[in-house]
Amino acid sequence: MSNSTPRTFNIVCIPGDGIGVDITDAATQVLTALASAFGTFNLKFETLDWSSKNYKQRGYYAPEGGVEGLKKYDAIYFGAVGWPDVPDHISLWQMILPIRTTLNQYANVRPTRIIPGTVSPLSACASDPSLLDWVIVRENSEGEYSGHGGTTPSTAHAAHTVATEVSIFTRVGIERIMRFAFETALHRPRKLLTMVTKSNAQRHGMVLWDAIFYEVAREYDGRVKYDKMLVDAMTVRMVNRPESLDTIVATNLHADILSDLAAALSGSIGIAPSSNLDPTRTFPSMFEPIHGSAPDIAGQGIANPIGAFWSAAEMVRWLAGADGASNDEGLVEGKGVGNMVEAADCLMQAIANVTEKGVKTKDLGGKSNTKEVTDAVCEEISK
Amino acid sequence: MSNSTPRTFNIVCIPGDGIGVDITDAATQVLTALASAFGTFNLKFETLDWSSKNYKQRGYYAPEGGVEGLKKYDAIYFGAVGWPDVPDHISLWQMILPIRTTLNQYANVRPTRIIPGTVSPLSACASDPSLLDWVIVRENSEGEYSGHGGTTPSTAHAAHTVATEVSIFTRVGIERIMRFAFETALHRPRKLLTMVTKSNAQRHGMVLWDAIFYEVAREYDGRVKYDKMLVDAMTVRMVNRPESLDTIVATNLHADILSDLAAALSGSIGIAPSSNLDPTRTFPSMFEPIHGSAPDIAGQGIANPIGAFWSAAEMVRWLAGADGASNDEGLVEGKGVGNMVEAADCLMQAIANVTEKGVKTKDLGGKSNTKEVTDAVCEEISK
Ligand SMILES: CC(C)[C@H](C(=O)O)[C@@H](O)C(=O)O
Ligand SMILES: CC(C)[C@H](C(=O)O)[C@@H](O)C(=O)O
């Protein structure tokens, strides 16, 4: 590919509900500014109206074949889903969870650090923000989110009603997420991986999880340091010794909980990104801020767009194939153009410059609205 | 019962492993001092050697019929279990988990607050410790700790190995813990109950959990305020708005995680108590600090005994039947002698006086060892 023919990436946006709409809008503006500032790649956006509002009217989020249809794009940008008038388990199981599993997005990656202009609620990290710098690798395809289980009798009202939740762990599923986590740790400055489990109380799937971790660990001996934590004790370590952690790997549910805690400890849930990756690059990966649809502030133009911008930066970095994925073991490098890595770095720097200056939303202690933060980031990019 | 015939309570101690031994020893000393200072009740101690060391020699923790044998005591005082040379899932499933379920200890109660002389790692709570004052009610008999599930083929080494963890939720199990939690909230100054769930991603057992919560809630309308949180978002609320929480009810696994986080946020895992209650008082309840056996500091005489003392205070309070349990709905009042409530308060005050003075172990920033803290608390009691 010559320098004069910028590569085009087709991005499909699913803004979803509530502030998902505001922040997806902000993210596409910032991404457009980024592409035109660099001129070496193009981003073409399409938008799908898979929202709870439409679900109420039509009876579905994604139409028949809709999730399959996502396979033709280069990446998916997701806002947020969930609205008070649709039970959460319906909105999630009809949209976000099928996307993650159908598109083989088995690795959910959640970096957390304290960006300039934000303050950790932990005294120690408030004085030294460098203490907290983590990447959480979440198993994103099975475990506690398998969806198996049921209720008998099907009404909750019988005196003897019993319901089950069945977590399913497969060797394939565990092995690939462990390998991905070790590869991630290998490309981090500190090369330390902490594996989280609850194998003391959960003696089947979690024991398999542990066994396969140690198996894969042998391949990385001498290259990656590793240790093991019980999920309950892990919260204590995150609070008390953040500097002792680097890369973390955990199950679908455990990492869901730990990554929200991580975001809170870093100063705001509004800044944290989440990448749902198909590390084999067979199907498009999906990028979304970790926050939800926030019905209470939706449509007011005051949502914090930083989590959305950081997610956008992760998308650009993934498209550039510069995420530390290797060709070994099915982790395939991206085929983006070279300086998209610079573009991702540029976006992260723009975010930092803007928050450092104090242009930030209320949740970060600032006074700006979504548009003001977005404009400021676009302006930094074009500098 | 006349004032001149002090009632005797038979307490069975299971020190277990590691620092469990040191702190059980400290707790019995303090309890003995308390009983003799009050003179209105007697505590008679017996000790069972159900340790990992004995397991290695004999092949069992509790002997045949051992757990059943606990039924003849008035209460169980538990240290800690777990030692590096026995896999955790064995030590737990052979001892602590069977005790909890066999003795119908379906409610695990974990108060958390910041006691004098301890400092929260959260800046906000470091300046105003009163912001954090919670009681976590943990479902202690089923859910994610049901033990169901398996591995097929039974070796982890097959390429297609699959393992499951099956969480079981019953109407009876959910209803009784919800009722217990509402009763607990009703007796707290703020009368607020927050229910934790993950019913957006776990759509069977967790949906039943939610439904029964709202059913029971109707009985308390106007008497207890209540709200619902997803477990991931709950960690954020605990960090950011501790003052917005009071009583919390969650499943076995969720509450396990949240209560360790709570202890960390309050300043030390070494001070937090845990009561495993049979609210029907058919069988003895069990009291234990939430910390583990801490192999790294075992036998050095430096373990923090405060969690053990607070657990001892909770035991005395439970024996006095003054825990807010009511006769409605199967929650039966205790038959202890009246001023055991005063005794429990006296022990809590003694702890506070000692930690406030700075007589505390290293983990709390002090320089004292277990014996010095224990002696200081005994001295306070006899004042
Ligand atoms: C929206 C929901 C399914 C979700 C999850 O639990 O996975 C969210 O909390 C997240 O962390 O992405
Ligand atoms: C020892 C272990 C079974 C335990 C649990 O997970 O219940 C501990 O973490 C606790 O919280 O009591």
TrEMBL record, chains A, B:
Q: Where are the transmembrane segments?
A: none
Q: Does the keyword Acyltransferase apply?
A: no
Which cofactors, if any, are listed as required?
A: Mn(2+); Mg(2+)
The protein's matches in Pfam families, at most eight in alphabetical order, are given as: Iso_dh (PF00180)
Its domain of life reads Eukaryota
* Repeat among keywords: no
Instruction: State the InterPro entries in the record.
Output: ICDH/IPMDH, IsoCit/isopropylmalate_DH_CS, IsoPropMal-DH-like_dom
Q: Which UniProt keywords apply?
A: Magnesium, Manganese, Metal-binding, NAD, Oxidoreductase
Q: Name one GO molecular function term.
A: NAD binding
Domain named Isopropylmalate dehydrogenase-like: residues = 10-377
Which protein family is named in the record?
A: Belongs to the isocitrate and isopropylmalate dehydrogenases family.
State the protein's name.
Tartrate dehydrogenase/decarboxylase
